[in-house]
Structures are given as structure tokens and as C-alpha cells.
Amino acid sequence: MTSPGTLHKLPIIDIAPFLGSNPGDPDNRATTAQALHNACVEYGFFYLNLEAYLDPSEPEELVRLGREFFALPQDEKDKLSMKNQDHARGYARLNENVTNGKADNHEGLDFYKPVDNPDKAKSVWGENQWPTIPGFKVKYDLWVEKMKTLGLILMEAMSEGLGMTREEWKDLRKQVDDSFWVMRVIGYPPLPNNHDGFSCGAHRDYGCLTFLHADPTPSALQVFLKRPGETPSDTPGLPQEHGHEEGVWIDADPIPGCVVCNIGEMWETWTNGLYRSTLHRVVHRGSNYRVPFFFEPNFDAVVEPLAAASRIKRKDIPGDAESMRKAVVYGDFLVSKVGSNFDVAVKGKYD
Questions:
Q1: Exposure winner among 10, 128, 180, 316, fewest CB in 10 A?
Q2: How far apart are CA 146 and CA 142, in angstroms?
Q3: For the chain, percent helix, then strand, then coil, each to nearest 5?
């Protein structure tokens, strides 16, 4: 099922027409691709219906395993501390993650793509640290493979929505076919009334695509939609985080059979600002567990504005004189962003 978004609701997009080895009905593919394009231009966030792609018990099992890990004694969890490795891979205690200078009220376990010749003295180049909980690594490894495949499927669908030729898509695919992915398992306790900050403060993702599975807790993930003339209503007792922007904070509550998907800064560069990474935050009043997977470009990918995006902007905005975004090497960009995000001498952060 695909349904458009509204002022207070994100669109839902069914990826089914792009699944399978045989191309689906061309009209259905075109409709899905256009819906993705519209969602990226207007929202930067959307629900991705995966009922035709995976069994809903799979992500539920991930949450169960995550809950089991975070219920361990503190000294057991600390055995996987990030300081054991590259200060990016491993466990971070409650309030060690920092956003906008304030401690985030969550704890997390972070994994990155395994690398050749790991070196824990090099940023993001260490080794992953896995809990010894039975089935944990097996189940999460399977999820990684499914999300990597989903990332390529969605990238192809987005390329069609952007009007890319098949050759242009092949060139773009070469930039993401060895994704330097990141996965987090996050535990959120109830946000204390006297906490100076959020469960996770407002931020924009700086990668490519984020796929988020969460347990059914409502009113936790909040997305800021720019809407001229609209005045945001802030969460009582918490600071304003949208600056002087006009718009609304909406809840992106979990929908059965769907993951929440959002685009990061690499898509801003590829589309020269046509698609924008959207501000979002987490406010938990109850216990919650989330498993975000970040499908990123290859570490050595050169990310630069795409010709297809320039064609759209020239067509939609006559006389557009906007300067081109600068090309970046993704790995360099990632390392430049990593750091100053934990309340310890740690390098590494994803939300």
C-alpha cells in the first residue's frame, strides 16, 4: 500500500514493485519511483512498506535481543565499551552520546562495516564487538545483509524517480555497492523530567539512507517539517530545537510492516539540494528499543551533484543560479563528522 503524506503525516511507500529478479509492472514502478521523489522533495522522511520483503518477526526478534542486552548488568555491558576499539564500534553508556552539546538519554551498541586490516587507533577502522547472547550476532548479521540489499533496491527506485538513465544509475550504483554501513541498537529509558536535553537531540543524518525499526511506543520519533506560516508547538519542558524555522514537529509513530526511512546529507549533495536531510529528534516517556540501519556510500565514493538533478532543477526552477555543491569523498566526510559526540574521549556517532 502506498499513500501520500499530509501536513501531519508522513507518506507510506510500498517497495513491492521493485522486488524480485524480474522487473515489476512498469506503471507500478513508475508510480512508486515518483512517490519516492515527491517524498524526498517534500518530506525527506517516509514509511517504507516491507510486507512483501520480510517477515515481521525478524525485526521483532532484533528488538527482543536488544532488550536482553540492555538488561545485562552494567559491568557486563561495559566489557564492550567503545574505548576498547576505535571509539566508534561498541557500547556507549547512558548519557555518553551528545547532540548539540547536551547528553542524550539513551545507551547504544554500534556496529560498522568490517574492514580489512583493522586498526583501533584509526577512526572507524576497528573491529565490531558482539554480545555473547545466543543468536545475537547471527540474527543481526542476517539483518545487515537484508538492509544492504534493500538499500540497493531503494537506490535504484530513487534513481528512476530522479529521471536517471540506466547508465547514470550504473555509475551511481558503483558508489554504493560496497556500502560502509552502520547499525545501532539503542535502548531508551523514560526521559526524566529534570533531564537537560532529549532522548536524542535534534539532528540531520549525514549519510545516505536510514532504515529504522522501532518497538510500538508512540510519540517518540519526531520529525520537523518546514511549513511557512506554521508555528511549531514544542514539547513542554524541553528546549526549542528548530531555530527560527517555520513548520511543525510531527510524530513518526511505528506502523506495522513498515520501517521509517529518511535521507541524509549525501543525497543533498547528489541532488544539489533538491532533496534535503530533515531535522528529527527522539523524546521517550517510556522504555523503547530501536534498531536504525544506515545504508551509506562506499568509503572511497566520490559524492558529487548528479546530472539528473541538474536537469530537474533547470526545468522546475527557470534561471536557477544556485551554485553546485562541492564533491566529497564519503570516507573523509564521515571521519570529519565523527567525534565530539560522546561525553568521553570517543570518536564516532550515529543517531
A1: 316
A2: 6
A3: 30, 20, 50
Beta bridge partners of 247: 226
Packed helices 136-161 and 57-70: angle between N→C axes, nearest 10 degrees: 130
Distance of CA 37 to the CA centre of its chain: 17
Cell numbers placing 294: 544506515
Q: Judge residue 151's burial from the number of C-beta atoms within 10 Å of its C-beta, 0-12 exposed, 13-18 middle, 19 or more buried.
A: buried
Write down the pLDDT at residue 342. 41
Whole-Å CA distances, 86 to 92, 121, 267, 346: 12, 6, 27, 8
Q: Which pLDDT band, with edges at 50, 70 and 90, does 104 fall under?
A: low
DSSP state of 156: H
Average pLDDT, integer, range 280-290:
73
How many C-beta neighbours within 10 Å does residue 167 have?
8
What residues have CB less than 8 Å from 310, skipping those under 6 apart?
Answer: 272
Helix runs in the chain, H state only: 26-42, 57-70, 74-78, 136-161, 166-173, 265-270, 307-316, 330-337
Q: Using the predicted structure, report yes or no on whether residue 312 has a pLDDT greater than 80.
A: yes
Q: What is residue 258's predicted lDDT score, i.e. its pLDDT?
A: 95
Amino acid sitting at position 18: F
Computed on alpha carbons and rounded to an integer, the radius of gyration of the chain in Å comes to 20
